[in-house]
Amino acid sequence: MTTIGLIGAGDIGSAVARLAVEAGYDVVLSNSRGPETLADLVAELGDAARAATPAGAAAAGDLVVVTIPLGAIDQVPVEPLVGKVVIDTNNYYPQRDGEIAELEDESTTTSELLQARLPESKVVKAFNNIAYTSLPELARPPGAGDRSTLAIAGDDAEAKATVAKVLDDLGYDAYDAGPLSEGWRFQRDLPAYAGLYSADEPGIWPPQHHRTVSRELLIEQLGKAKRYRDM
Ligand SMILES: NC(=O)c1ccc[n+]([C@@H]2O[C@H](COP(=O)([O-])OP(=O)(O)OC[C@H]3O[C@@H](n4cnc5c(N)ncnc54)[C@H](OP(=O)(O)O)[C@@H]3O)[C@@H](O)[C@H]2O)c1
Q1: Ligand 1: which atom is nearest the Cα of residue 68?
Q2: Which of 25, 53, 71, 110 sits most deeply, having the most CB atoms within 10 A of its CB?
Q3: From CA 54, how far away is CA 61, in angstroms rounded?
Q4: CA distance 156 to 175
Q5: Per the confidence metrics, is the pTM higher than 0.90?
Q6: What would the pLDDT profile of 63-77 be if each residue is shown by its tens digit?
């Protein structure tokens, strides 16, 4: 696999793209306003990057990252993602995304919504629980003593192995938290959410100081997860 397509190139999408290019991948970026609006980012990333429409980025990617506001997932192109591994970075913020009844009543999860939109793709939840400022700062080569671990969730074992390899290339160990239905354990505001990777006082956003998160610490924090209705 050599090309990562990105649907969305904002804070977290561009942070993933930078790490991917550093790791030797080609990236194809897209956003809602059109490829020409990504000229600065493409220039910064160099020859390994180009911009396209969302459908173009979806078609070009051997693996595709969906990293847009959750409220826009109904616009994610379906057909060019058939058969592909799709990383979902999305979180649910009702003020931004509008209230989504199935998330309010916790009868589903954010990544299961994307999987429902993309029934013939293999969705893996990843990168949703680390801030865009922490992601570049905590990346480390394999075997580094202070390497951090990121949680992933997905229903397809092979797709999760593919995503774990991408995470490894980008500077992180992966911990498999289970199927997509378990992805709520690292959703917004829970102990394994982005504050875990921050060394700042609670409430400071985006984090300016960052904390290494070992596999053991991540597992411990995932174990403390409670449903919103039980909090
Ligand atoms: N920021 C973080 O630290 C962070 C960390 C982990 C996960 N997340 C989650 O990841 C997602 C993206 O977050 P972000 O902070 O990167 O958001 P952002 O900075 O607001 O960027 C959103 C990107 O999505 C694009 N976009 C919006 N609607 C689109 C559409 N219909 N088709 C294609 N592209 C579209 C935007 O393009 P235009 O600018 O052209 O509209 C922009 O490039 C959110 O669900 C967020 O909760 C964020």
Answers
A1: 24
A2: 110
A3: 11
A4: 15
A5: yes
A6: 999 999 999 999 999
